Amino acid sequence: MVILDGTIVSVALPSIQHSLGFSSSSLAWVVNAYLVPFGGLLLLAGRLGDLIGRKRVFIAGLGIFTAASLLCGVSQDPVMLLASRFVQGIGGAVTSAVTLGMVVTLFPQPKERAKAIGVYSFVQSAGGSLGLLAGGALTQSIGWHWIFFVNVPIGIVAALSAGRMLASEQGVGLGKGSDVLGALLVTSALMLGVYTIVETTDRGWASAHTLSFGAVALALLLAFVARQAKATRPLLPLRVFRSLNVSGAMGIQALMVAGMFSFQFLCVLYLQKVLGFDEIHTGLGVFPVSVAIGALSLGLSPKAIARFGPRTVLLPGLALIAAGLGALGRVPAGGSYAVDVLPALLPLGIGFGLAMPALATLAMSAATPEDSGIASGMFNTMQQIGAAFGLAVLSTLADAHTEALLGDGADTASALTGGYQLAFRIGACLVVVSLLLATALLRSPAPAQRPAVEETPVPENAAH
Question: Which domain of life is it from (predicted)?
Answer without folding.
Answer: Bacteria
